[in-house]
Specification:
about 230 residues; alpha+beta; Aminopeptidase; 6 helices
């Protein structure tokens, strides 16, 4: 399982805009369709309030993410909170997707949270990425991530950004293998029962550079204040 959540707050950029509601055909009002699943046994759906029981079952069946990041298992309102979560006040963005990867039995095999144009146009953020424990070591996580990256790049992403808890070795190795590099760390992030150090990771996509990203996003530069 790869886990990646950056819970920093910042109030130095333009106000947050509420994301549009998806259409029933799976196409967002912004015109960006849902990604196509790269795995033939999984179907990608966008999760909403009606899917709270489905997501809660997935969280409870796969506790490693919560144990590693929060130091505790998923609480009874974990799914509700995840579905309702938006970027911090003051962070600009265009849309947030909470994606579920449904298996043939109807249950989730993975979940991912992606935000487009976070902080600056072209910077997409992966806020959550969990693959069921039973699929660890199968290559599923890398396959699903590559699908997300291709989708994001095809719809305007120039960089991908995420935060990973320092010391979560499985996640750190996974994101390094996908080509992400650290730009800075944030200390003292209180997350559940744990106080974590978060590593901010960025991956430039085709034709872009890390230097160009950091020129646009001062908060992610090395040594930037928490």
């Amino acid at each position: 399982m790869a886990s990646s959540r950056d819970v920093a707050t910042d109030a130095t950029i333009e106000p947050v805009r509420s994301p549009p509601d998806p259409r029933t055909d799976g196409t967002a009002v912004t015109g960006v369709p849902l990604p196509i699943s790269p795995s033939p046994d999984l179907a990608i759906v966008e999760l909403g309030p009606e899917d709270e029981p489905l997501l809660q079952r997935f969280f409870e069946a796969n506790p490693a993410y919560f144990d590693g990041v929060f130091g505790e298992t998923a609480g009874p309102e974990a799914a509700r909170d995840e579905i309702r979560e938006l970027p911090p006040d003051g962070w600009s963005y265009t849309r947030r997707w909470l994606l579920g990867y449904r298996a043939a039995d109807g249950e989730l095999a993975a979940a991912a949270d992606v935000v487009s144009d976070l902080l600056v146009p072209g910077a997409w953020h992966v806020g959550l990425f969990i693959v069921a424990t039973a699929r660890h070591g199968s290559g599923t996580a890398a396959l699903l991530y590559r699908g997300l990256e291709s989708w994001a790049a095809g719809h305007g992403a120039r960089w991908l950004r995420l935060g990973v808890v320092q010391g979560n070795v499985r996640a750190e190795r996974f994101w390094a293998a996908q080509g992400f590099v650290e730009t800075r760390t944030r200390t003292g992030a209180v997350m559940g029962r744990r106080t974590n150090t978060l590593r901010v990771l960025v991956k430039p996509l085709a034709g872009e550079t890390l230097a160009a990203y950091l020129a646009l996003v001062p908060r992610d530069r090395p040594g930037a204040p928490d």
